[in-house]
Amino acid sequence: MTTAPAAKPLRADAARNRARLLAVAAEALAEDPDTPLEAIAQRAGVGIGTLYRHFPERGALVEAAYRQEVTALCDAAPALLGQVRPAADALREWMARFVRYAATKRGMGAALRTAVGSDSSLFAETRTRIIAAIDVLLDAGRADGSVRGDVDGEQVMLAMGCVWNVPDSDRWADRVRGLLDLVVDGLRYGAGDAAR
Predict the structure, then answer these.
(1) Angle between helices 172-188 and 87-116 (to 10 degrees)
(2) Which domains does the chain have, with CATH numbers?
(3) Using an 8 Å Cβ cutoff, are 115 and 58 in contact?
(4) What letter would DSSP give residue 55?
(5) 96-111 pLDDT per residue, tens
(6) Residue 195 predicted with pLDDT over 50
(7) Is-contact 101 70, C-beta < 8 A?
């Protein structure tokens, strides 16, 4: 039985170029889902050939940029808990990051649906990962008594779904932050009682 060869690790400069392309692509596609690949390469400070070496077609770049945004959001949960604070404060800060993720996803939504299709398993996978990140924060909050013990990550994710209903405006991010603050305040309500 033969196994496929392991993917060759990228050289340091190639890894930096790839990371820069993904960051710029997420930002550019959030601003305009039809941003040309040439403009993304130029903003990233690389040639179009470098972009195509990493991402042979537009859909691959869009999907990779989205996956990177999801990974950064989910990885932030345990990182925020590593700081000295109640877990409810870490959850509030994580939700501020969720606002940035939501703004990016909202902006690049059309490009993403075109790249992977609206029935792609990517969206279910993303939802599962985000719920798991929320559960990490809730578990820590239950342990330190800063959040209620009767709520799980899926319920919080459903409550956070309010962000998709906020109409576009120059106040979108502020309004979303206010709604998510209400969610965190609700998670704090009765937390001390549950610990008794």
Answers:
(1) 130
(2) 66-195 (1.10.357.10)
(3) yes
(4) -
(5) 999 888 888 888 888 8
(6) no
(7) yes
Give the CA-trace dihedral at 45, 47, 49, 54, to 10 degrees: 0
CA atoms within 13 A on the CB side of 33: 16
Give the count of beta carbons closer than 10 Å to the beta carbon of residue 16: 12
pTM of the entire predicted model: 0.83
Confidence at residue 194, expressed as pLDDT on a 0 to 100 scale: 47
Q: What is the mean pLDDT of residues 4-27?
A: 80
Length of the chain: 196
* Burial of 12 (C-beta count, 10 Å sphere; 0-12/13-18/19+): exposed
Q: How far is 84 from 89, CA to CA, in rounded Å?
A: 10
pLDDT digits (tens, 9 = 90+) for 41-62: 999 999 999 999 999 999 999 9
Percent helix / strand / coil, the chain, rounded to 5: 75, 0, 25
pLDDT value of position 193: 58
